[in-house]
Write a structure and sequence with these properties.
Arc Repressor Mutant, subunit A; single chain; 81% helix; 122 residues; 2 domains; mainly alpha; 7 helices
Length: 122
């Protein structure tokens, strides 16, 4: 169960970064299977192809996403930068109250927190 969930999360993350680089059919199949939770049979019926054809399209699309990530590393970079942002915000929030009341620092903390909230969707 964990392995399948990890795969769904991984494909979803890579899809967010690289979907524009896939063919339209690959995008549609990934979207239908992973985001809309349609079965291979349902997707096959939609495209008037066999389940095996859908399976092959999904496998190739997943492999393509992994190849783009291997070459470009956008998802890994995003994760690393997000972790750093969390660490910076944590460090700033641990500062003494007298320092955190400085308007500039307080605004920086608010801005960093808003960045973290905006990036949770990706």
């Amino acid at each position: 169960m964990d392995r399948m969930l990890n795969k769904v999360l991984r494909v979803g993350q890579l899809y967010d970064f690289y979907n524009a680089l896939l063919t339209e059919k690959q995008r549609d199949c990934l979207n239908m299977h992973y985001l809309q939770d349609l079965s291979l049979a349902e997707i096959a019926a939609e495209f008037s192809v066999s389940r095996q054809a859908v399976h092959d399209i999904l496998r190739r699309a997943e492999q393509t996403l992994e190849e783009y990530e291997q070459k470009l590393g956008l998802a890994a970079r995003y994760s690393q930068e997000r972790k750093l942002l969390v660490e910076v915000v944590g460090s700033l929030q641990q500062l003494p109250y007298s320092v955190k009341t400085l308007p500039e620092l307080n605004q920086a903390i608010i801005t960093l927190n808003s960045l973290l909230e905006d990036t949770r969707e990706v």
